[in-house]
Structure formats: C-alpha cells, structure tokens
Amino acid sequence: MTEVLFNGNGVISLGSIDGKEDLEPRPGININPPPDDGRCQCCGRPLDELKPFGKAGDPLARDFSGALLVQKFRPTGPPDGEAEKIIEKFHRNCRTQGDYKKAREKLIQKYGEEKARELELSTQVSGLSGASWECRGCIVLDTFGYFEQLKSLRST
C-alpha cells in the first residue's frame, strides 16, 4: 500500500510508490512528487523491472512491503572533503557577519575569486538535501555509492 507521509490542507506528500497508478498527480499541491517516468532516480530502471520491497528490515527499518520506489532524502551534491577543510579553516572562528566577510576576503586573497566561489558552492551543495525516489537496490547505497551510481547513469 502506498505510504502517504502527509495529506492535509490541500497538500500531499507520498513516501512510497507501489505501481504506475501512484505516479499520477493527486489533487492539490504535491510535495516531492514521484518521477513522471516511474524510474528509480538513482539507477534509472523503470517500475516494471523493479523488485518490490519486502517486510520491515528489507532493507529498511520501516515496512515498505510491496513498494517499488521509496522516497529518500539525499545530499544534493557529493561531499568534498578538501573544500570542507579549506572553508572550515577560514570560517571556524567567525561569529558575526563582519567576521564572515573578512574570512571570505582572505579566502579570495589566497585562492582567487573563482576558486573561492567553487569551494563555497561545493560545501553548500553537499550540505543541502533533496528528495530522491529509489528502488530497493539503490536505497541502501551510502552517499559515495549513490553519487557513483548517478555518475554512471548520467554517462550512459
């Protein structure tokens, strides 16, 4: 049975997809709707090629028995340890807006404006989350495995 995370005040959010009928938009505002094409957003396989989730523990703590896709929140970009270390080094003692402005000026002075912007964006993107609809094979991937799978999907 399709899991509904929230349904009220004209807003709906699903947590799982059991079949093609669940891909149809529901009346009102659909938050993080399932993919229109019914494909796993990690590996790209369509619903008719997916093995359904089993009972609780297969491979999640909750019971998604029969679901083909489950919504999971993932970082919107891969972690960048080097960028995080650099940004942390420049910003660790910042407490005020003025402190951050001075730290950014020093970052630009050391790395140049373009590289400083790349470092900042890299850490920001990996710190944000977004919904991803995934099959039982992909939902268990760690962050690095997830981005490797996405990379291989995009290169085909």
What series of H and E elements makes up the topology?
A: EEEEEHHHEH
Mean pLDDT across all amino acids? 91
Beta-strand content bin? 15-25%
Helix content: 25-40%
The domain count comes to 2
Structural class: alpha+beta
Give the N-terminus to C-terminus distance in angstroms.
33 Å
The backbone outline, from C-alpha atoms, is elongated
Give me the count of strands. Answer: 6
Q: What is the tally of helical segments?
A: 4
User: Low-confidence parts lasting 5 or more residues at pLDDT below 50?
Assistant: none
Q: Taking Cα atoms only, what radius of gyration do you get, to the nearest Å?
A: 20 Å
In this structure, how is the largest beta sheet organized?
3 strands, mixed
Strand order of the largest sheet: 1-2-4
Tags for this model:
3-stranded mixed sheet; 4 helices; 3-stranded antiparallel sheet; alpha+beta; single chain; 156 residues; elongated
Topology:
Elements: E1 4-8, E2 11-14, E3 16-17, E4 29-30, E5 69-75, H1 81-91, H2 97-111, H3 113-127, E6 129-134, H4 143-154
Structure description:
The chain has helices at residues 81-91, 97-111, 113-127, 143-154; strands at 4-8, 11-14, 16-17, 29-30, 69-75, 129-134. Helix 1 (81-91) crosses helix 3. The relative contact order is 0.17. The mean pLDDT is 91. By secondary structure, it is α+β, with helices and mostly antiparallel strands. A hairpin with a 2-residue loop joins strand 1 (4-8) and strand 2 (11-14).
